[in-house]
From TrEMBL:
PANTHER family: OXIDOREDUCTASE, PUTATIVE-RELATED, P450, PUTATIVE (EUROFUNG)-RELATED-RELATED. Heme binds at C464. It comes from Circinella minor. The lineage of its organism: Eukaryota, Fungi, Fungi incertae sedis, Mucoromycota, Mucoromycotina. The chain crosses the membrane at residues 16-35. PROSITE patterns: CYTOCHROME_P450. This is Cytochrome P450. One of its GO terms (molecular function) is monooxygenase activity. Keywords: Heme, Iron, Membrane, Metal-binding, Monooxygenase, Oxidoreductase, Transmembrane, Transmembrane helix. Belongs to the cytochrome P450 family. Pfam families: p450 (PF00067). Its cofactor is heme.
Amino acid sequence: MPLFSSTWFTNNRDPGFASAVGATAAVTLALLVVYKQQKRITASQRSGLKEIPVPKEQYPFFGHLLSLGSVVSRRITEWHNELGSDIIQLNMGIQKWIMLNDPKMAHEIFVTKGAVASARPYMAFTYQKYAMGGKGVVYTDGGKTWRNTRKAVVTTLAPKMVEIFRDVIEQEVAYLVENLVANSDPVTGVDPVHYLQLASLNLILTTCLAKRAKSVNDDLFKRLIKYVEDSIAYGSPENDVSTYVPIMKFLDLFNGGKRKAEGERLLAFRIKTLKEDLIKEARNSSEKCFIKTLYEIKDEHNLDDNDILVTMSDLLIAGTDTTSVSMSWALILLVNRPHIQKKIQAELDAFKAEHKRVPTFGDRSNLPYIAAVQRECMRYRNITHFGIPHVADEDIECQGYILPKGSVIFCNMNGIHMNPNVYENPEEFNPDRFFNLESTMYGAANGRLENRDHYQFGWGRRVCPGIYLSEVELFSTLIQIFADYTLEPPLNEKGQPVYPDDNEAIDAGIVMTPTPYSVRVVKRSATA
Ligand code: HEM
């Protein structure tokens, strides 16, 4: 189910809830909260600050919840355009959601004012159950526990640590390419999704837990991918609607048994598979891995076993789908653009002619076009709708607007990356816009606003700590595919090419994936 779909309520609704006894009390409570919030805004308006534009399409109690359309980020981009504003406010039940379409504002809020804009919104399951009351990194508020854990994670995933694992990562990419080639039918090609998922999962497993799943049929692969997907789905807002609309508390009452059982199953899996099997094995193994580093620095960062368990689960969930979906977008964008593939291959051929070997990530500075293609693939199609939201700990003033304390702040990834004030001809796929940008994506995301390339990795104190790891994997994948192969579209029964649609996207929860597609992976000497 989509993360922010307008079908939440029709899909999930228990028909009995609307007539449930006690609705009046809940409605009164909801009205009171809404009234209090409106009073705050009115007070801020009186102080002469500008009013954040609000789209018209809203309903009593639900606000804009029911007007979001099927691809929410696109609906929100339309609202930005209709209202002619890079900042808009949505009323999501009792919550205020502030949507940003402009990197300057996002930078001012999340980086310059990051001290009060780096908390996460509270959600009952993710915070209380999944994060055991605030452990781990992803769902924790911005307090001391998060700071300790985040520091440990940033140390563990720092470029110099990832570099220690570069051979392992490049070997994993070699397996990926082998899998794609072996399974690519000469006519129908191969659907790359499971192989990309396997590569990304193995990236986390090998670097963090000194373990790997052997194939897409391996039971470990199937069970962990299910854990990742279920955790994302279970932790998404539609499973916590009473956070937005208190009268929906009835939904929790009616669905409580089933939902509770599903949640308990996930947490039990985590204890059995992650804690008792994988973490234990990794600690006893002679191989190097991040979990061992985390245990080595555990006391220095005040972490206990449960902090490490939730953190490991966070890395698995935050690192697997995001990286495989990024690679999936890159492949579909490139199969549709043979002229870009040719330029990539020309750069690789020139390198091979000079150095008599296939390059690696370490040769990145000699491969400026491939580095530019990597960035443009990331910019052109957003992997997440909104990254992960932040919360204002205090009223925050930005460019004459006031973002009220408690409001949930999102970057509209589609809006920012297609904003003509930020990128020239944003609808055009044009790697040249990033040609000769020297920094890595890791450096750009952690650097000054004017040196940023794209915003897929988020912002400020919460910026993704896994950038370098996924950057090495993505870059190595481009190198290893195009050194020897070309991506071509599948053929129909008349032998004509059928190019996959890279405009449509599936709203798969937190991530946005391409619609299912196939590519033919063709040996270069065999291509025309
Ligand atoms: C292309 C791949 C990836 C993308 C697009 C991505 C994107 C993001 C985004 C947008 C955020 C939220 C930032 C914010 O709140 O402003 C985030 C956070 C996070 N990511 Fe990634 N990520 C990727 C890969 C990874 C990998 C490989 C790992 C770990 C191995 C990882 C671990 C995390 C963690 C732990 C957080 C939470 C940080 C915090 O809340 O302090 N990510 N990521």
